[in-house]
Amino acid sequence: MTNWPQTSVNTDLTENNCFGCGQNNPIGLKLSFRWDGKTARTEFTATELYQGWPGLLHGGITACLLDEATAYAARYEGVNCITARMQVEFKQPIPVNEPLLIASSVTSKTRKLVRSHATISLNNGTIVAEGTATQFIVGPVNGEDEPNSNVPK
What we know:
By secondary structure, this protein is mostly beta strands. The protein has one helix at residues 59-76; strands at residues 34-35, 40-45, 79-90, 99-109, 113-122, 127-140. It has one domain (34-143): Hotdog Thioesterase (Thiol Ester Dehydrase, Chain A, Roll), CATH 3.10.129.
């Protein structure tokens, strides 16, 4: 029998200060996801503020985009999660100042875990990075307590 870690996570997002999606975070990515019933999607154009090598998106920001996307796929499926494991595949360098399309879907869900897959693509459809995540469920999404959330009520 596996003993899953017990954790308490404050899922109140009313401060709207998350680095990935918080609209009040002055240095955040300010992502805003949409849901089509199966896939969470957003667009993002990185500036030089998020580069690693000149003109290229930093790998940590790439991983952050994928992590946020997998979290939103889980949220749209009705649960708040924290990432337990994530695998990122960088397929090619990602230029800054070019629109990116980010999409994620849940691939499986149990009582305690959610697994999701996310991609980052250029406008021409080329996938430049993808990731899979295993996330611990920390509780249900409660839209009443999260008025600034992008998750539909």
